[in-house]
Amino acid sequence: MVHFTEAITREHLEDIHKLAQKIWQEHYSNILTDGQIQYMVSNFQSPDAMETQLKEGYQYFQILSKNEIDGREVNTLVGYFSFVQKNDSGDLSKNNSIFLSKLYIQKTSRNQGIAKSVVAYLKRIAQKSSCNSIWLTVNKQNMNSIEAYKRLGFKIYREDSVDIGRGYVMDDYYMKIEL
Description:
The chain is 35% helix and 38% strand. It contains five helices and seven strands; from the N terminus they run βαααβββαβαββ. A hairpin with a 2-residue loop joins strand 6 (155-165) and strand 7. Helix 1 (10-28) packs antiparallel against helix 2 (34-44). By secondary structure, the protein is an alpha+beta fold. It has helices spanning 10-28, 34-44, 47-55, 114-128, 143-151; strands spanning 2-6, 59-69, 72-85, 97-105, 133-139, 155-165, 168-178. The protein has one domain: Gcn5-related N-acetyltransferase (GNAT) (Aminopeptidase), CATH 3.40.630.
């Protein structure tokens, strides 16, 4: 059984950062260079970077799995996600979309319906906020994630390559689910 807890303390962000290092290395080693993985984790998933994103309106959530160990309930961090209400154009005056900025689940917890639960959660938030879509970006070579998003109802609607510094590029598909 999983549940979500909003990451609001520095400790929460540090825990997410540690998990991000593990997930990114494992998941992206066939897609990105080690240098780009380290660059992206340190620049976009460090506790300082996440604190800046929180100030910009992003919300981070820990994905926790409840387990019983020796008769007591223990929560284990198995993933995280982040979102902000904004349109693909970046136009903050027309915030009728939710941008799913991050959704990462550790390998041993994938294929258990967690991503489906996250999307259902975001759909409820979108409805309350009068949003008409949820969108995300995904690396063009990340075939497993692309297929998972398609199964959740997302469709590719455009692609883009963005220079993120130090000669690194994010070469992504943009995917959206209409509500």
